[in-house]
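Hypothesis: this fold can be encoded by more than one sequence.
Test: take the structure tokens below, design a sequence, compare later.
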């Protein structure tokens, strides 16, 4: 198992930027693929982005491509999500998650592949 603790979110105006982080402890961080998900009021939790254990492969949901960047620093056991050009539609609770032993892009995009979850953090984008 790995334990995940997220940074605080925040309130930002449309067009602004915000970086989220997710600190891991416990089982070796570099053995996990990592992902970001979000959940808006009245909606199901949805995939946002994922990164392989080495950081060599990343994948994104279409709506955030070109605006969001997922990265990881295995020496610091930390995952990041850099969010630029934010839109009101991005308002949601954001969750980081870890998937043990996942090797395919398809699996990295599936919520069912993830074993451990952060506590979630609120991101609000005002118009």
């Amino acid at each position: 198992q790995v334990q995940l603790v997220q940074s605080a979110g925040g309130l930002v105006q449309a067009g602004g930027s915000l970086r989220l982080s997710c600190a891991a402890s416990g089982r070796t961080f570099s053995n996990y693929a990592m992902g970001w998900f979000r959940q808006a009021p009245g909606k199901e939790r949805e995939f946002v982005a994922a990164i392989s254990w080495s950081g060599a492969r990343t994948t994104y949901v279409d709506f955030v491509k070109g605006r969001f960047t997922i990265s990881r620093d295995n020496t610091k056991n930390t995952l990041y999500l850099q969010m630029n050009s934010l839109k009101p539609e991005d308002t949601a609770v954001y969750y980081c998650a870890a998937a043990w032993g996942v090797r395919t892009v398809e699996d990295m995009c599936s919520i069912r592949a993830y074993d451990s979850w952060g506590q979630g953090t609120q991101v609000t984008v005002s118009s």
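The chain has one helix and eleven strands. The CA atoms of residues 33 and 49 lie 11 Å apart.
Hypothesis status: open.
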